[in-house]
Amino acid sequence: MDSTGKEREAVQLMAEAEKRVKGSHSFLRGLFGGNTRVEEACEMYTRAANMFKIAKNWSAAGNAFCQAAKLHMQLQSKHDSATSFVDAGNAYKKADPQEAINCLNAAIDIYTDMGRFTIAAKHHITIAEIYEAELVDIEKAIAHYEQAADYYKGEESNRQVVFDTITYFNAIIDCSSANKCLLKVAAYAAQLEQYQKAIEIYEQVGTNTMDNPLLKYSAKEYFFKAALCHFIVDELNAKLALEKYEEMFPAFTDSRECKLLKKLLEAHEEQNCEAYTEAVKEFDSISRLDQWLTTMLLRIKKSIQGEGDGDLK
């Protein structure tokens, strides 16, 4: 059957499902098998949604999954209701980002009510990504990343009560997931010139990871980024922060990031734009600078007298 045929069949199923729901409300049906008709309607809505997906009618698919979700809730089946809301959100993502967010929020409400915070956190991340990519609302993206991080951290602290191996690794996964969300928040905060917020997060994540054998390699990157944020605000703050990070995490001293910071501080103190640019070029030739680092390094460079064309290379 072609996609048009699938769509026609889906429309018929929706109509039939609606009849079942209405029929379940009658007095006699309520006494004899009302729930059965609701269950049948639920199944029909789900089948219709999948047919709409085949036909690539994403809004109709999202709507059908929503109808199924509401009926699952009526049947006291919270897990199935949340799953259907997530399916609705995934369908709407392709056609109506705001409606996708509404459905995912409905699923999150159910999961948090059930105490399923790790799953709720994952859906907060999906919402944050929609705000980033589709709706370009960075403040709202930040809020959802922060909420996801809070949920992951909550689950991590719950798991620390039990000391078996699986629980230990699950706690590390939760910690890593929380860190990823927080690092997103820090990166955006710095871009929005909320440097103190970015510094606090980079220092927190750096401190959390530096004693963990599986995560400590990344700590130098977080202390490097925190120091850059300090540097943009005040050169002396950056020097003091660098000393603190070296004392806290001795492995940082031998890192290329720490050596670059020292060269940049020296060039900045001497107001030597060429030396600053040369240090950045040397670092970039081994470790390519991403857009975030380029932006931050340019902001620092602009405070050096006699700056040239605003380029780093």
Structural notes for this entry:
With 313 residues, this protein is mostly helical. It contains 15 helices and no strands. It has helices at 3-24, 27-31, 34-54, 58-74, 78-92, 97-113, 117-133, 138-159, 165-191, 195-210, 219-233, 235-248, 256-269, 273-286, 291-301. The longest helix has 27 residues, at 165-191. The protein is elongated and about 80 Å long. The N and C termini lie far apart (59 Å). Residues 27-33 and 159-169 have low confidence and may be disordered.
Summary, kept brief:
With 313 residues, this protein is an all-alpha fold. Helix content is 79%, strand content 0%.
- Helix segment tally: 15
- Helix/strand/pairing category: mainly alpha
Distance between the termini: 59 Å
Task: Tell me the series of helices and strands, N- to C-terminal.
Answer: HHHHHHHHHHHHHHH
Strand content: under 5%
- Computed over alpha carbons, the radius of gyration is 26 Å
Inertia-based shape: elongated
Describe the protein's topology.
Elements: H1 3-24, H2 27-31, H3 34-54, H4 58-74, H5 78-92, H6 97-113, H7 117-133, H8 138-159, H9 165-191, H10 195-210, H11 219-233, H12 235-248, H13 256-269, H14 273-286, H15 291-301
Helix pairs in contact: 1-3, 3-4, 4-5, 5-6, 6-7, 7-8, 8-9, 9-10, 10-11, 11-12, 11-13, 11-15, 12-13, 13-14
